[in-house]
Amino acid sequence: MEKPTVSVNILGQEYKINCPKGHEAELTEAADYLNGQMQEIRNNGKIIGTEKVAIIAALNITHDMLSSRKYARSNEQQLRELTSQLDSALTHTNKVG
């Protein structure tokens, strides 16, 4: 099964990327996001060189992703605790009633 090739543009450079069938839009969205992040870093003027810009963008994106995961895990833990408290309260109410 042949994988589709998607053309993406990052900092004015075109790249042809193979991706799983049906994921072309996701790849394009990811490339657009990366391009935006890299343009923002480059426009700040403090970092020169595409490779350095790419590394800083990758670090920023990875940091955001890891922070989001920690936040999601914290929310999951809070939901489990609330569910447990609710179960206990309902059990207590059923025994009293």
Blueprint (SSEs and pairs):
Blueprint: E1 5-10, E2 13-18, H1 24-44, H2 50-96
Antiparallel strand pairs: 1-2
What distance lies between the first and last C-alpha atoms, to the nearest angstrom?
A: 63 Å
Order of helices and strands: EEHH
> Which oligomeric form is depicted?
single chain
Mean pLDDT across the residues is: 89
> Could you say how many structural domains there are in total?
1
User: Could you name the CATH homologous superfamily?
Assistant: Cell division protein ZapA protomer, N-terminal domain
Q: Main β-sheet: number of strands, strand sense, barrel status?
A: 2 strands, antiparallel
Strand order of the largest sheet: 1-2
Total beta-strand segments: 2
Under CATH at level 1, the class stands as Alpha Beta
Please give the count of helices.
2
Rg value:
23 Å
- Enumerate the spans where pLDDT stays under 50 for 5 or more consecutive residues: none
Kindly name the structural category.
alpha+beta
Portion in beta strands:
5-15%
Shape verdict = elongated
Question: What fraction, in percent, of the residue positions are helical?
Answer: over 70%
> What's the CATH architecture name?
2-Layer Sandwich
Q: What's the CATH topology name?
A: Double Stranded RNA Binding Domain
